[in-house]
Specification:
The chain is mainly α and about 325 residues long. It folds into 2 domains: about 60 residues, no CATH class; about 220 residues, MetI-like fold (Orthogonal Bundle), CATH 1.10.3720. It is about 70% helix and about 0% strand. Helix 5 crosses helix 15 and helix 7 crosses helix 9. The protein is flat, with a radius of gyration of 24 Å.
Length: about 325
């Protein structure tokens, strides 16, 4: 039977937070207990509610404005909705379904954003989970140094790697796509592949680091028992590690999904700027320049762009705190 043990790096701050919470319950006079008491006090709760309301007001104003006719939105503010009532769905119909060349035509850009974000998030999670398991539970030469190298990649500014990555894509990836299109014409010459790869490359270092912290906390006895029963690393990963790491995977999926969805810089460089692959953020940036006076369309388009991230966040919110603060066996 081979010996297995989690990698030594890094120090698990999240686990420490969880242990601090348990310590606060056992020892009321400790520093952790005092901090917990302050954060759960009535004053802290009221302050949190005030901050939440203040942060929500702009979004509420955006929602109200998106349903107001053009003449009202130009002459009155959304806060005067009771003195100047008036609602319409024409803004959303124009933004999403109009075929006029002068309309924003966000429908195709919305589909592009969904395709880019779903695969950009899924690819990152799959490779990060496998790499985190390998760093935590597979012993091989230079494992700790390799993990430190991956961890250090987080400090490289994104802007520094854009030009080299674009050169690599132009030299190798684009010709390969053109070659595949010549052989199989149904495969489009320009697709989402550069965006998927770019988002995965930029998201992997942080994803591996966070998931490693979670996966390495799984008790060694569980892994050892599986090995004694003859389980391979693949069986351990899919049948034991992935179910236990679901809260962590869901938590990072939220971060990665929102980051990819809101991205504009990477999309501008790697999408090519065509309607076939450009995301909704790129179209919104164009609308600000070309339709800066048509606020009714801009507000409707902006609210369309934030609906799907809100749905994803509220769907997975029950995993959010669990994944960040709990250990694998405390979920």
């Amino acid at each position: 039977m081979s010996s297995v043990a989690p990698a030594d790096l890094p120090i698990d701050k999240e686990l420490a937070d969880g242990e601090a919470a348990e310590l606060a319950e056992r020892e009321p006079g400790t520093k952790a207990a005092r901090v917990k008491k302050r954060l759960t006090s009535r004053t802290a709760t009221i302050a949190s509610l005030v901050i939440a309301v203040v942060w929500t007001i702009p979004t509420f104003g955006l929602l109200v404005s998106s349903f107001r006719p053009a003449e009202l939105i130009r002459t009155t503010g959304w806060w005067t909705i009771f003195q100047n009532p008036g609602f319409t769905l024409e803004n959303y119909a124009t933004v999403l379904f109009s075929t006029s060349s002068s309309s924003p035509q966000l429908g195709s850009y919305l589909v592009n954003s969904i395709a880019i974000t779903l695969l950009g998030t899924l690819i990152t999670l799959v490779f990060a989970a496998m790499a985190a398991y390998a760093f935590a539970w597979i012993r091989f030469k230079w494992v700790n140094w390799l993990f430190i190298f991956v961890f250090a990649l987080q400090i490289i500014p994104l802007q520094m790697s854009l030009v080299p990555l674009l050169q690599i894509f132009s030299t190798w990836l684009r010709p390969m796509q053109a070659w595949l299109h010549d052989i199989v014409p149904i495969i489009p010459e320009q697709n989402y592949l550069p965006l998927w790869l770019a988002h995965a490359m930029f998201g992997l270092p942080l994803a591996i680091f966070l998931l490693h912290n979670f996966i390495s906390d799984i008790p060694a006895d569980v892994i050892e028992a599986a090995k004694v029963d003859g389980a391979t690393h693949g069986q351990i990963f899919f049948r034991i590690v992935l179910p236990l790491a679901t809260p962590a995977l869901a938590s990072f999926a939220i971060f990665q999904f929102i980051w990819v969805w809101n991205d504009l810089l990477v999309a501008l460089i790697f999408s090519g700027g065509t309607q076939d692959v450009a995301p909704i953020t790129q179209r919104l940036a164009e609308l600000v320049g070309t339709r800066g006076q048509e606020w009714q369309l801009l507000t409707a388009a902006a609210f369309v762009s934030i609906v799907i991230p809100l749905i994803v966040f509220f769907s997975l919110q029950r995993y959010f705190v669990r994944g960040l603060l709990a250990g694998a066996t405390k979920g």
